[in-house]
Amino acid sequence: MSISTKSLPLPTSAPAAVRTSLQPRSIRVFEQDLPVPGPGEVLVRTEYCGLCGSDLHIWNGDDGYDWVRCGTVLGHEIVGTVVRVNGSSAIVPGTRVVAVAQSGCGDCPACASEYANGCAHRLTLGLSQDGGAAGFVRIPFAQLIPVPEHIPALTAVLTEPLSVAARAVASRGLVTHADTVVVSGPGTIGILAALVCKHLGARVVLKGPERDVAARSGLAAQLGLELVAELPPGYRPNVWIEAAGAAAALDDAVRELSVLGRLVVVALYGSPPVVAANDAVRKELNIITSYSSHRADYQLALRILQERPDLGDLLVDVVPLRNIALAFEKVGRGIAPKVAVAP
Q: What is the SS3 assignment for 304?
């Protein structure tokens, strides 16, 4: 199959953030030859690549991430422009795209059910295969979604984390306009989950500890969100989205949810939390978990971003790729809801 290229010449090399060892702070930016797209793949010029908690764990050399091989280019929150296409595809050079982070083997029962997250052989950009914290990245056709024209790249880089929030709220939590919702944890996923609730017409408050309320109250106001340390008097949620990763937030949820309420857990925890199971049983709470996202969740995320093209300016702090250490410092300190690198 032929490789279609843009008329503008491409460089022969570009910077890439590469894991060099399993030790802490062992991610370096090197010049590398441009990836060559194989059959059924495109070459994308990265505009922005967001960094998330998984990337921070790798930067810190944390246990549980030693399976991410040395030599891997990080980054799965990718927005960029297609510059080469190897094969026949509706996506042509010049198309701005986001990448679905995970792909399955295509042959197992999980993949047959369109549940790539459950595939034992799934691949994830930036973890088990080279990602987009680089000038260029090659991506299979099947993992590409075109970005609607009027969504800026800085906003589109939020698509992947917003898809995670969309899955928790809409696909798993089944939130509608009839629901009263609490989202615990005003971090990236919590803020985005609250925005998904608003998009769906639900009544929602975002809850966090006093220090987070003080730090993010201005941002919450700009986003049209109510951020509180204590629930308003008489506020009785029937849905709770737990995005804090804190055992205390689970306790709050079980205590505050109405009978037959839905507790959706999208956070991960540093140590196994203890849940007041007897109280949850007596209320007949539905405890639901949500992990990662699927293509449909990305599509919902893009519909929301069409309504809020300003979100990139409000939520994203951009750091040059070559200053990768500064980028991870900002991620670790929670300076902005989302830190993205720009090649």
A: helix
The mean per-residue pLDDT over the stretch 267-279 comes to: 93
- Structural domains of the chain, count: 2
3-class state of residue 44 by DSSP: strand
More confident call, 90 vs 164:
164
Query: Amino acid letter at 104?
Result: G
Q: What is the pTM of this model?
A: 0.95
Distance, CA of 243 to CA of 220 (rounded, Å):
16
State the distance between the two ends of the chain, measured CA to CA, in whole angstroms: 29
What one-character DSSP code corresponds to residue 167?
A: I
The tens digit of pLDDT for each residue in 214-236 reads 999 999 999 999 999 999 999 99
Pair (136, 17) in one structural domain: yes
Q: Does 168 reside within a domain?
A: no
Task: Determine the Cα–Cα distance for residues 184 and 267; give it in Å rounded to an integer.
Answer: 10
**Full strand arrangement of the beta sheet holding 180-184:** 227-228, 203-207, 180-184, 239-242, 262-265, 286-289
Vertex 179 angle, CA 267 and 199, to 5°: 75
Pair 258, 325 in one domain: no
pLDDT tens-place string over residues 80-112? 999 999 998 889 999 999 999 999 988 999 888
How far, rounded to the nearest angstrom, does the alpha carbon of residue 173 sit from its chain's CA centroid? 17
CATH number at residue 48: 3.90.180.10
Task: Tell me the Ramachandran region of residue 319: left when phi exceeds 0, alpha when psi lies from -120 to 50, beta otherwise.
Answer: beta
Which residue type sits at 48?
Answer: Y
Confidence of residue 10 (pLDDT cuts 50, 70, 90): very high
192 and 264 both lie in a single domain: yes
What range does the domain containing 64 cover?
A: 3-161+293-342
